[in-house]
Structures are given as structure tokens and as C-alpha cells.
Amino acid sequence: xxxxxxxxxxxxxxxxxxxxxxxxxxxxxxxxxxxxxxxxxxxxxxxxxxxxxxxxxxxxxxxxxxxxxxxxxxxxxxxxxxxxxxxxxxxxxxxxxxxxxxxxxxxxxxxxxxxxxxxxxxxxxxxxxxxxxxxxxxx
Length: 139
Prior knowledge:
By secondary structure, the protein is α+β, with helices and mostly antiparallel strands. The chain has helices at residues 3-32, 45-57, 61-65, 70-75, 78-85; strands spanning 89-99, 103-112, 118-127, 133-138. The mean pLDDT is 83.
């Protein structure tokens, strides 16, 4: 085999190896990105609270903010919301304690990771003009 053919084969092998490494990198990048869940309007207050918990645990804060009522959004900006909820949570649970056709009350309990610090929030929900449940107060 001539020197020129060997050099050409080495060049082709290098190009193939580079393409394989690039493909593996692209595949790894695509498989490690976690899409933020999109909220779907829920039929019950309990479902809305559960979805809120799932979203804040998944760091889908922009989407979780949309579950706040218009009234609550007027007093809590998206930046303030992020300050409150941008935490690593190992657990988020909800409990609906009272519900009528248009309002509901309950709690959200969170456990932060890795500190294990727990917090409990009293929550009021209302049905908006479209008939969807929204968080109207959280303390």
C-alpha cells in the first residue's frame, strides 16, 4: 500500500471517528434535556394543586406561574414567584381541605433538597371566568 493511500485512509478514519463522537454528543444532549410540562386546565381544585406541585418540582416555574389567578399575579410578579419557588424540592404534596363550586382551600407541603427543610403553605383557589381552577392566595 502506498504512502498516499495510507494517509487517505487515516484521514477517512479520523473523519468517521469525529462523526461518531459528534453524533454521540448530540444524542446525549437530546436525552438529558427535560422538557417543562405544559399545564392543561384542570377540572378540579385538587388536580390544579397537584399540577402546581409537579411543575415547581420540575422547575417549570413560568408554567406554574400561569396557575396563579389574575388577582394573585397582580401582587406577585414573575420575578417574585421565581424567588419563592426556585428551589430544589425532594417532595411536594397537596391536601384539599374544603371545596365548593367556585372556591377551595388546602395546603401545599414542600421538602427542600438537600437540607430537608419543610414548609407548609395555606392555599385558596378560585374558578376563573373560563371555569378553570387557579391559585388565588398562598401564605
